[in-house]
Prior knowledge:
Elements (H helix, E strand, L loop, with lengths): L1 E5 L9 E7 L6 E2 L4 E6 L4 E5 L4 E6 L6 E3 L3 E6 L2 H11 L5 H7 L6 H11 L2 E4 L2 E4 L2 H9 L4 H5 L12 H11 L31 H14 L3 E9 L1 H18 L6 H14 L6 E2 L5 E2 L6 E3 L1 E2 L8 E2 L2 E2 L7 H16 L13 E4 L19 E15 L2 E15 L5 H17 L5
Helix pairs in contact: 1-2, 1-3, 9-10, 9-11
Amino acid sequence: MATEILMPELGESVHEGTVSRWLKKVGEQVKEDEPIVEIMTDKVNTELPAPATGVLVEIRIPEGSDVKVFEAMGIIEENADEAAKMLAGDGTPPPAAVQESSAKASEEEKPAAAEKAEEEPAVATNSERRWYSPVVRAMAKANNISEGQLSSISGTGAGGRVTKRDLEAYLGGDRPAAASGSGSIAPKPVEPTKAGDGQEIVPLAGMRKMIAEAMVRSHAVPTVSTLIEVDVTTMMEFRSRNKDAFQQQYGVKLTFTPFFIKALTECLLEFPYVNAALMPDNQIVMNKGVQMGIAVSLGEKGEGGLIVPVIRDCHKKDLVALAKDLEEIAGKARGNKLGVTDVQGGTFTLTNPGSYGATLGTPMISAPQAGILGTYGIVARPVIINGMIAIRQIMNVVLTYDHRLVDGLMAGRFLQSFKQKLEAFDFFK
Length: 429
């Protein structure tokens, strides 16, 4: 029995990923639930378990290639004899375990069995029989591609097998005009980018590609950004006085981010539309709790991209619990140990570019969330207080929001509430 290795859903609005690494080779034995392939998306990197015990007889999506949700990435054959026949057809030597099982058949039976195994899927062309996967056959049928036309395609799969991507390339531009059958003109292929003097071509791949695609989706949302200045002098003084004692008592560092999460959570409960989501069917999801996505950098220079794990039930937690959760998810993210559930279910996102010195920016929302808040670098500035000049610690805060759900008045009041909570600093005294 053949079992497909399917690409699962790895989060809301995640429609595809990238196969970053196969942990098994074609012909190797695998056990059910054993890690078999690594998948990368803009939200998470994860290892997928094998759906069955058997032999990996086919890899349909090679490393570095994109895969859509529910698309088959490979095939596991549970029956050792059938696996041996399929691998023999590819020219791939069967593994020892498969060879031992297949050796039970007599020498006279082997050629007949191999020929029988090829009869159903094979296509006769030029006195040669070729095997096509069910996906390739279905695509060929849907596009009126004859078996003769299939046989003319140069395959890049194991043993010269025609893969889904080979057929897509054929349909997209390599297909001869006479074979189209529909009278349509194939799109002109994009000219490959060439490097000039002092240049190097680097493909957009992996997490950076996933982030790019997510940003394109979010760009379709009508957004507005509103800025406010916040005096965080009291907050900074509190942290300076208590950070050492806090770490000794609770075993966790006291950064500014837990203060932001705490104040932001209270604001989101006060303004539920900012914590909502507008879905494609024009239904608004009103979230009764706050599940805060926190943007975490995966590299000192940003080369690893950003990932947004979620702190659950922020509305039920005090500042100590938030600080512990923050340190835990940041550690998991930088150690590449996040699971699928760690990045799902966020209702709002907080990003803190101020941690690497940025003083102003306009963060982009993660659709379908209604908003994202950016906290920026804290700078000592002269301000007027009661007619006197004073040096205060000032931070820029920017709210980017979906203008279909949140208008300027609501955004302004939301930011004023956030400002008042941080400046009063009455939630941890």
